[in-house]
Amino acid sequence: RVASLGPQPEDDEKAKGWKATLNALVDDAREAAAASSAANIGTALHEFTEAYDTGRLDLSTVPAMYRPHMDAYARATDKLRAVEVERFLVQDDLKIGGTTDRILRVEGREDLGLVIGDVKTGSIEYGASKMAMQLAVYARSERYHPSGMRSAIDEINLSRGLIIHLDAKTAECSLHWVNLMDAWEAVQLAASVRAWRARKDLMARADD
User: Fold this and answer.
1) CA distance 67 to 192
2) Rounded Cα gap, residues 117 and 150, in angstroms
3) Gap between the Cα atoms of 166 and 76, Å rounded
4) Cβ-based burial of 145 (10 A; exposed 0-12, middle 13-18, buried ≥19)
C-alpha cells in the first residue's frame, strides 16, 4: 500500500495528504505487529502449559519473561490433574472434530468425574457463549484414534467445563466454571439453524 502512494508530491497541499496517509499506514503496521506479537506469546504460553501438565517442564528453566505467567499457572492449577492433553475428539452427529486442551480431574472432587478444560491466554471478556458451546461439544464427543476408531470418554462431566485463563498481558491465572447444559442447548439450536440454512426447497421457478 505504501508503494501504491508513489513518491511524495511536490505540491505542499497534496504532500500533506500523502504524509497523513503514510502515517496511517505506519500505525496500521504497528498495530498488526503488536497483534502478531500477542499471538506468538499466546502460542508460547500454550506450549509451556502443555509441557508443564505433561511433566516435561521444570519451571526454573522458563525464560524470565514467561516465569510470572507459569508461576501463576502452577498455583491456579495446583488441584487439577491433566488426564489427557491436546486430545483430538469427534462429534459424529454434528460432524465436528477438534482438539480439546485438557481432560482433567479435580483433586478432592471425585464427584465431578472427568472435566473438559481449555486454556485461554487472550481476553475472555467477550465470547463466553462461543467458548461454552465449544466445551459442550467436546464433552459430548469421543476420542478419535488414527485407525478411525472412536472410544467414549467415561466419567465425563456433561454439566460443567473449565476455562483456565492465563492472561498473557497481566500474567494472572484464574479458573472459570462453564455451564455446559445451557451451552449444549445453544449448540443444538445452532445445528438447527445450520440445517435450515442448507435447505434447497425454499424457492422454485415461477413458471414450473
Assistant:
1) 45
2) 20
3) 9
4) exposed
CA atoms of 152 and 141, how far apart (whole Å): 8
With contact defined as beta carbons under 8 Å apart, do 73 and 52 qualify? Answer: yes
Distance CA 135, CA 126 (A): 16
Per the DSSP assignment, residues forming a β-bridge with 144 are 150
pLDDT digits (tens, 9 = 90+) for 122-138: 989 888 999 999 999 99
3-state secondary structure of 72: helix
Which amino acid, one-letter code, is at 73? Y
Q: What is the pTM of this model?
A: 0.79
| Burial readout 151-170 (b: 16 or more C-beta within 10 A, e: otherwise) | eebeebbebbbbbbbbbbee
Q: Give yes or no for a contact between 106 and 112, defined as CB atoms under 8 angstroms apart.
A: yes
| Amino acid code (one letter) for 180 | L
134-143 pLDDT, tens per residue? Answer: 999 999 999 9
Q: Are 183 and 135 in contact (CB under 8 A)?
A: yes
Give me 27's grid cell.
500505525
Q: Are 174 and 165 in contact (CB under 8 A)?
A: yes
pLDDT in tens, 87-102: 999 999 999 999 999 9
